[in-house]
Specification:
This protein has 267 residues and is an alpha/beta fold. The protein is built from 8 helices and 9 strands. The chain binds nicotinamide-adenine-dinucleotide (NAD). Nicotinamide-adenine-dinucleotide (NAD) binds next to helix 1, helix 4 and helix 6. The site of nicotinamide-adenine-dinucleotide (NAD) has 29 residues, from helix 1, helix 4 and helix 6.
């Protein structure tokens, strides 16, 4: 179904965010904003999107943002609204992996703070500014076989993790940051039920991105073990996660709200 409005993808310089932003461009979004801490990769991705975009007057921008800093997030969202007049779909995908493996009693609190600031407070900041920017927008409508229905003023999709719903040993910093992010998403969805703004979450399992590759390169034998442990015998491609995010943004998901959609091949 049509996803032809304005998309903002945070963490669009790499991995799941990059594939999601390109998917929006390829499937007809009229504008896509690529935001990332790394402006160079966001800019390259934004440039690439021009060659695959299908909307006639497609527009794109790249924005530097640090999700740990609310002022930076506020200026990102304001830039999108100022440039394109509206924000229809926001995807929050910026994140950091576990930096070291440690049992709970040995957790390094500097790492704990870094992951909390990025994966948890980052989601909080993005949701705060996106809700402010989106909740009072004019709702959009679609015509279905059973009549006309509202699809609300927009849709926000947060990328947490399978680690937001299940524990992994020696990964407290990451797991805690993702469980907490999931709590924020649930509260925000509940609070916004009367605005029509849909707020959901995808919880991917292992996905073949630079984040995962960096971890696998350090332990080459682990890759095959992970593949064998997956019900479908392999890890996800980032575009398989992007497809699900695109669905949640679309009118096809107009009655899906506050949901945690696990994408893990059936783990
Ligand atoms: N790859 C996986 O196996 C996997 C599994 C489950 C969940 N996830 C989650 O998916 C999301 C995307 O991960 P990925 O695998 O695509 O990783 P990635 O490293 O390929 O991409 C993450 C992007 O986030 C950006 N980023 C990091 N800190 C930032 C900050 N402070 N402000 C703005 N941008 C920042 C990075 O520059 C990078 O471009 C993350 O939240 C991650 O936790 C990944």
């Amino acid at each position: 179904m049509d996803v032809n409005g304005v998309a903002l993808v945070v963490g669009a310089g790499s991995g799941i965010g990059l594939e999601t932003a390109l998917t929006f461009a390829e499937r007809g979004a009229r504008a896509v904003a690529f935001a990332d801490l790394a402006l160079d990769t966001a800019s390259a991705a934004s440039e690439k999107s021009k060659s695959i975009a299908t909307a006639k007057d497609y527009e794109t921008i790249a924005i530097a943002v640090d999700v740990r800093d609310r002022a930076s997030v506020k200026s990102m969202v304001e830039e999108v609204k100022k440039r394109f007049g509206r924000l229809d779909y926001a995807v929050n995908s910026a994140g950091l992996p576990r930096q070291t493996s440690a049992k709970t009693q040995d957790v390094d609190e500097t790492e704990y703070d870094l992951l909390h600031d990025t994966n948890t407070r980052g989601i909080l900041h993005c949701l705060q500014e996106e809700i402010i920017a989106m909740k009072d927008q004019e709702p959009l409508y679609v015509e279905g076989r059973s009549g006309r229905r509202s699809v609300g003023p927009g849709s926000i999709i947060n990328v947490t993790s399978l680690s937001a719903v299940t524990a992994t040993a020696e990964s407290v910093t990451y797991v805690a940051s993702k469980f907490a992010a999931r709590g924020i998403v649930k509260c925000a969805a509940l609070e916004n039920r009367h605005t029509g703004l849909r707020i959901n979450e995808v919880c991917p399992g292992f996905t073949d991105t630079p984040m995962l590759r960096r971890g696998l390169d350090a332990q080459p034998d682990i890759g095959e073990i992970i593949n064998r442990s997956m019900p479908l015998g392999r890890i996800a491609m980032p575009e398989e996660v992007a497809n699900v995010i695109h669905f949640l943004a679309s009118p096809g998901a107009s009655f899906v709200n506050g949901h945690s959609l696990v994408i893990d091949s059936g783990v």
